[in-house]
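Morning, I've got a small favour to ask if you have a moment. I've been staring at a protein lately and its backbone has me curious. You're getting the sequence in one-letter code plus the fold written as tokens. I've dropped the whole record in just underneath, so have a look:
=====
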Amino acid sequence: MRCSSATLNCARWKKASAIDMQPDLSIIVVNYNTSDFLEVCLESIWRQTGAAHQTVVVDNAGEDGGAEMVRRKFPWAFLIANQSNAGFARANNQALSYCGGRYIFYLNPDTELQEGAFARMTAYMDANRQVGLAGCRLVNPDGSPQSSTEARYPGQKYAAGELKGLGGDIAWVMGAAMVAETSLIKTLGGFDERFFIYGEDADLCLRVRKAGFQIGYIDDAVVVHWGGRSERDNEPLEVWSRKFAAEMIFYRTHYPGRAVGAIRRAHLMKALWRVATIRLSLPFIREKSGALAKLERYRHVLKVLGNAAEK
């Protein structure tokens, strides 16, 4: 076993894997400075019944003691402790070779599984062989619904003709809690590692559909999702710019040049308009912080797309 960038807890993994049958689920949880939520997440995994499972935790070199907490409190989980932040997509892919379950369950650390989630997931996937990947029902801590599925891809109106013939009505599901056929995910190579964070779920779902499968939704597999915890120390522009970069990677990967050009022009026109209107209105705005944050974002769009046009 070779891995220069991570510490692998092999003895514990072998002990946790000593079962008489192939696991139903291999759970992958990537942690980055979310150890308080990760503890709740792993406890909810431990309580699940009705499906044999194994768990891989990838700690992305956070500074809150997450790796040590996993070693101390959850010795049944296989831990990969990275020496640096590998990014969300790459960290998930690190775990793939250690996943022996029939299905892979991608789970964010800021989640809590509700009773029966694993049993319902495996039953759904077993009964719907046309589904290659499915999302769970995400709810807020107060029980109110979160967005769990999307019917269209970002920028799809510019490239609708390129996406004809794909199976099913769901375009993609939120990556906070999604289950997929292990053999399919390994064939596809897991997440596209060009997506450091954000956008990797939509990209993977589209590749699953292009491979001839549908995207499903498991309404009775409920997962509480706090959402966005690893972003809490980031400036809004940093988070927003990462999302914008991920969108552009998605467009260039899946859409023809004419569609990417149309999307780029639409972004440029919007950014030019918004920069002009915000600057004109600033003298009349008492609380300027929100407007200045938006101005930063649209200036970033002009800078990124302007530089791309010069290349």
